[in-house]
């Protein structure tokens, strides 16, 4: 798995994943981003953890279904108690997958910025998979 992760680092994958350029126009100075009024080239990427997160999710979904005894009609609602060992493992594994996805984005943007000889004026990041919290055992 290490070799696969290393070889895919900095790539976006397939499906709904993409890397695109566009033009963004600021009608006035944006103080929060420290950008003057004007038109700018923008780079947008969307990718995930290259199958790593899906593998983790599949494994822990099956584990949850075996631990959390629900009626057949509700089996897809199975969950892991976050105070359990399995819940903590899942939490850590999915955060690792999120960190990997973030690293892929960072490398994609660094490579393209360098290839274009561009300067990054501002950047912001969002995530579609949000794992937040302060878990205590």
Task: Supply the key terms.
elongated; 137 residues; disordered C terminus; 3 helices
Describe it:
With 137 residues, the protein is an alpha+beta fold. The longest helix is centred in the last third of the chain and has 32 residues. The protein has three helices and two strands, in the order αββαα. The C terminus is likely disordered. The chain is 40% helix and 13% strand. The chain has a two-stranded antiparallel ribbon.
Low-confidence stretches: 130-137
Averaged pLDDT, please? 85
Span between N and C termini? 30 Å
- The H-and-E topology, N to C, reads as HEEHH
Computed CA radius of gyration, to the nearest angstrom: 20 Å
Largest sheet: spatial strand order: 1-2
Number of helices: 3
* Multimer state: single chain
Taken as a percent bin, the fraction of beta residues is 5-15%
Structural class: alpha+beta
Total beta-strand segments: 2
Biggest β-sheet, characterized?
2 strands, antiparallel
SSE topology sketch:
Blueprint lengths: L1 H7 L9 E9 L11 E9 L5 H16 L17 H32 L21
Antiparallel strand pairs: 1-2
Helix pairs in contact: 2-3
Write a compact overview of the structure shown.
By secondary structure, the protein is α+β, with helices and mostly antiparallel strands. The protein has helices spanning 2-8, 52-67, 85-116; strands at residues 18-26, 38-46.
